[in-house]
Amino acid sequence: MTRGVLARAYYSVDIGRLRHFADVLQTGVASSEEDQPVTMLLKFLIETSQRRRGRPEVRERHGKTERALAAYIAGEQLSKLYATTAELFPLPEETICEAAA
């Protein structure tokens, strides 16, 4: 699920920033204050790793991963990590379809 968010973001996010986000998420080693949304997401993912994985839980994990990535890219500090309800990283073909509608 986390890889899915990163794959979608690949089309619209700087690859170096995306790699850094993934590295911090994988290692847990933050290099600056800027990494705060990533470490917040990591804490959430660890705390919920033993939870049931039904549809609502998957949606929450996906939404929080998207929100943390968007905050990290924008250089935003979060006081609490909420799940987004909108797709923050649409694929190119989804953007074209929305523009045509």
Description:
With 101 residues, the protein is an all-alpha fold. The protein is 61% helix and 0% strand. It is globular and about 35 Å long. The model has no long low-confidence stretch (mean pLDDT 90).
Which percent range describes the beta-strand content? under 5%
Question: Structural class of the secondary structure composition?
Answer: mainly alpha
Count the beta strands: 0
Order of helices and strands: HHHHH
What is the averaged pLDDT score? 90
Helicity, as a percent range: 55-70%
Q: Outline the biggest β-sheet.
A: none
> Rough shape?
globular
Q: Count of helices?
A: 5
Terminal CA distance: 28 Å
For the CA atoms, what is the radius of gyration? 14 Å
Number of domain units:
1
> Which stretches are low in confidence, meaning pLDDT under 50 for 5 or more residues running?
none
SSE blueprint:
Blueprint: H1 2-9, H2 15-27, H3 36-47, H4 55-74, H5 92-100
Helix pairs in contact: 1-4, 2-3, 3-4
A few lines on this structure:
This protein has 101 residues and is mainly α. The protein is 61% helix and 0% strand.
Please supply descriptive tags for the structure shown above:
mainly alpha; 101 residues; 5 helices; 0% strand
